[in-house]
From TrEMBL:
<protein>
    <recommendedName>
        <fullName>RecJ OB domain-containing protein</fullName>
    </recommendedName>
</protein>
<dbReference type="Pfam" id="PF17768">
    <property type="entry name" value="RecJ_OB"/>
</dbReference>
<feature type="domain" description="RecJ OB">
    <location>
        <begin position="3"/>
        <end position="75"/>
    </location>
</feature>
<dbReference type="InterPro" id="IPR041122">
    <property type="entry name" value="RecJ_OB"/>
</dbReference>
Length: 77
């Protein structure tokens, strides 16, 4: 899937900044997303308030018996 004009509301890095978890807002809706194996190009775009376009897949995230839907970002631009 692709979605454009997503505002970065919040983010934090995981695993010594190799992955990033983001909270994105688009058209009034808020989504949780994660991106794995990020590089310098991606880090330069991840700034709170920035608007990005994302290429992603949807997955069910299960953590401590709690299920949520998350976007797994494959690329952003």
């Amino acid at each position: 899937f692709t979605t454009g004009n997503c505002a970065i509301i919040d983010f934090y890095y995981l695993m010594e900044e190799r992955h990033v978890r983001l909270k994105l807002k688009q058209s009034g809706r808020v989504f949780d997303a994660i991106m794995f194996k990020i590089d310098k190009r991606v880090k330069e775009k991840i700034i709170t308030g920035n608007k990005i376009n994302i290429l992603y897949k949807i997955e069910e995230n299960i953590w401590r018996d709690f299920k949520t839907i998350q976007l797994v970002i494959l690329d952003l631009f």
